[in-house]
Amino acid sequence: MKILGIGNAIVDVICKVNDSFIEQNNLSKSTMKLFFDENEFKNLLTNLKIEKTISGGSVANSIVGLSQLGDKVGFIGKISDDEFGNKYEEGLKKENVDYFYSKRKEELPTGTCLILVTPDSERTMCTFLGTAGKINENDVNSDIIKKSEIIFLEGYLWDQGEPRKAFDKAINSANQVAMSLSDQFCVDRHKPHFLELVKNELDITFANEQEITSLIEAKNFEEVINFSKQLNKLVVVTRGEKGAVAVNGEEIFESDIQKNLKIVDLTGAGDLFAAGFLHGHINKLSIKECLKKATEMSSKVIQQIGARL
Predict the structure, then answer these.
(1) Reported pTM
(2) Which residues make beta-bridge pairs with 245?
């Protein structure tokens, strides 16, 4: 297998809302809020009209993108044997992703992420991790990891306790490790640990400019470049309007964004960017070509609703 993703198995529930809904529910626009109270989360859902449901989670979105590009891929993520869990599994199988997890009835339901899309195409996410956040080392099969050329992890998954053990086991068994820093809140929560991962464990780090700036507490982008150069690993940073940069030791590669796109929804832009880049990487394309593929994939996905092409 080319790439094995390990991440939060979350059913994305996409709804269109007005800005007033965001304000009334004390949500912070364009960020991800974690809900720990199942009832509070359900109350939020009751007043909404669901546009569509998708087998999501950041890494799962990337893995599906890779499958659509013709790469042989798999995914590990924890679900429960419930309605959303069944939908999740079916959704991945439909996309030709090998799903390496045997579900059973868990105490907590399958994870759900409510994606609220406002008229300006921004997305505000409300996530109830459910059983996805309870992944442990027994859920991660070392043999499957060893047979994969590269594993792809998400920062979202990295929480103290059981998920961390699963993460460590995966990294220790892997041939090559790529990871996305996922979200600025995530970086702020786990700064010393993420820094340790980026410096010593990861072969490829994906981040947006805010996340990596926050991680190393950089004053400007030049500091990000200098930090990345010293690592002697591959660091790929997306910069919104300014395009993207990949740093590999002393080499720096840049790519511009595609112009004149009709942007509808930014959900999945980073996930599909990573998919395009990793597709290039495992198929031995140059870094410049990897960036080009990454930009092409993310440009496509933001012109439609949801994180799927």
Answers:
(1) 0.88
(2) 237, 254
